């Protein structure tokens, strides 16, 4: 799983570097890479709920808005 996330990141980084060749916005590529890495991480840890992932990282005050 970690290898796949690193591969997605590296391919995304290369696409950002070659923006003039791919003709795709850097922000669109970065957003796609972030979502793809997060999806792979969550699929790999399917036993975790989103609460268990978010709340230990300081999102306790906004819990009522998300959950």
Question: Could you characterize what this model shows?
Answer:
- The chain is an all-alpha fold.
- It has one domain.
- 72% of the residues lie in helices and 0% in strands.
- It has five helices and no strands.
- The chain is elongated and about 40 Å long.
Brief descriptors of the model:
mainly alpha, 67 residues, 5 helices
Topology:
Elements: H1 2-17, H2 19-22, H3 26-44, H4 50-54, H5 63-66
Helix pairs in contact: 1-3
What is the compact description of this entry?
This protein has helices spanning 2-17, 19-22, 26-44, 50-54, 63-66.
Order of helices and strands: HHHHH
Distance between the termini: 27 Å
Structural class: mainly alpha
The strand count comes to: 0
* CA gyration radius, whole angstroms: 15 Å
Mean pLDDT over the full residue set? 80
């Amino acid at each position: 799983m970690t290898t796949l996330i690193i591969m997605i990141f590296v391919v995304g980084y290369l696409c950002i570097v070659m923006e003039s060749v791919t003709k795709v916005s850097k922000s669109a590529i970065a957003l796609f890479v972030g979502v793809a890495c997060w999806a792979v991480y969550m699929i790999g840890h399917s036993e975790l709920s989103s609460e268990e992932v978010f709340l230990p990282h300081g999102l306790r005050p906004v819990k009522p808005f998300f959950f």
